[in-house]
């Protein structure tokens, strides 16, 4: 009884961790209009929520009590892993997005189609939260489970390979985050290998000798999800802190450049030369101010500069910083 209660809580904890990951990506979703990590958190979170026994029986009962909830749970996990794989692999290796959209989605489509086919071939089933125990003696039911297991193993294997290949080239916060993601995926691959032999052992009894039935699957799954969730959150949080620092730096720079610009324009008997744009970003405002200063200096002629050597060096360094930001 304590074990069942613990497993129920573990699925809720996993769902909460995944929904928190999705929530952490809301700023990126609002900024870009789409975010694959957000989608991964939502779909995987719904799958973990369905893994909670009371939630599963409630939803499956609404769907007819024939384990359509199991099909939905597996499908949500597959789609969530697809988004996660896409997000991580493309983030650490931009060249991975060079293939056509159809080619990138083909593994996902094949897995979902085959999974649905094997579910249908299993025949009529009654709502259960122990699919393996009740139905894995039927080969289609075992193959149904194997589709998700194989997809998770493939996705996590590719994520782990990409993470550890490119981690040395990343910034420190990204190194820590993606190292955690890679470690979580390695744990997932090991768990999936054990689950695959366990799923097929009922249909093929000789596999029972190497079955991983004594492995604490749920504990390892939760550990993997926590590592991946925290690992993906670290770069997002670090990125927001970096952007806040950059905005603060720009506002401080504008405050320092503003009196220099006013004095230079006054010295050259010039007023504001560029039309004010209230919607301009701090970088655009700063760029406009620099253009006005250099134009005023040019109009003043040689030997009539209003800038000190220190101010000129500072403005050149600001201009160089803006150029570097634009080139990124």
Describe this structure in words.
With 328 residues, the protein is mainly α. It has helices at 2-24, 26-32, 36-50, 53-62, 68-92, 101-122, 131-135, 139-166, 172-201, 217-267, 282-300, 309-327. Mean pLDDT is 82; it is low at 1-5. Helix content is 77%, strand content 0%. The protein is built from twelve helices and no strands.
Summarize the structure in short.
The chain is mainly α.
Key words describing this protein structure:
12 helices; mainly alpha; 328 residues
- Low-pLDDT runs: 1-5
Share in helix: over 70%
Query: How would you describe the shape?
Result: elongated
Q: Determine the N-to-C terminus distance.
A: 56 Å
Structural class: mainly alpha
Strand content: under 5%
N to C succession of SSEs: HHHHHHHHHHHH
Total strands: the figure is 0
Mean pLDDT: 82
The major β-sheet equals: none
Rg (CA only): 28 Å
Number of helices: 12
Summarize the topology.
Elements: H1 2-24, H2 26-32, H3 36-50, H4 53-62, H5 68-92, H6 101-122, H7 131-135, H8 139-166, H9 172-201, H10 217-267, H11 282-300, H12 309-327
């Amino acid at each position: 009884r304590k074990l069942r209660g613990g497993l129920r809580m573990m699925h809720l904890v996993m769902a909460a961790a995944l929904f928190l990951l999705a929530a952490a990506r809301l700023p990126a979703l609002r900024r870009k209009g789409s975010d694959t990590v957000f989608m991964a958190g939502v779909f995987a979170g719904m799958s973990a929520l369905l893994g909670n026994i009371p939630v599963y029986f409630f939803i499956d009962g609404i769907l007819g009590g024939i384990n359509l909830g199991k099909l939905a749970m597996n499908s949500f996990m597959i789609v969530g892993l697809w988004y996660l794989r896409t997000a991580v692999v493309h983030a650490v290796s931009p060249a991975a997005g060079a293939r056509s959209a159809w080619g990138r989605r083909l593994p996902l489509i094949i897995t979902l189609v085959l999974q649905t086919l094997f579910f249908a071939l299993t025949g009529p089933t009654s709502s259960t939260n122990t699919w393996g125990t009740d139905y894995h003696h039927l080969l289609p039911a075992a193959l149904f489970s194997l589709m998700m297991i194989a997809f998770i193993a493939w996705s996590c294997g590719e994520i782990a390979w990409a993470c550890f290949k490119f981690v040395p080239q990343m910034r420190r916060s990204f190194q820590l985050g993606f190292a955690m993601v890679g470690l979580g995926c390695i744990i997932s691959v090991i768990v999936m290998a054990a689950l695959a032999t366990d799923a097929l052992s009922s249909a093929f009894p000789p596999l029972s000798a190497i079955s991983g039935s004594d492995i604490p699957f749920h504990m390892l799954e939760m550990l993997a999800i926590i590592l991946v969730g925290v690992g993906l959150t670290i770069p997002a949080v670090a990125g927001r802190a970096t952007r806040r620092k950059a905005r603060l730096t720009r506002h401080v720079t504008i405050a320092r450049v503003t009196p220099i610009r006013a004095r230079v324009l006054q010295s050259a008997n010039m007023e504001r030369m560029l039309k004010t744009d209230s919607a301009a970003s701090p970088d655009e405002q700063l760029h406009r101010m620099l253009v006005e200063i250099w134009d005023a200096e040019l109009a003043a002629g040689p030997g009539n500069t209003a800038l000190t050597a220190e101010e000129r060096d500072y403005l050149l360094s600001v201009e160089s910083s803006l150029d570097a930001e634009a080139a990124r």
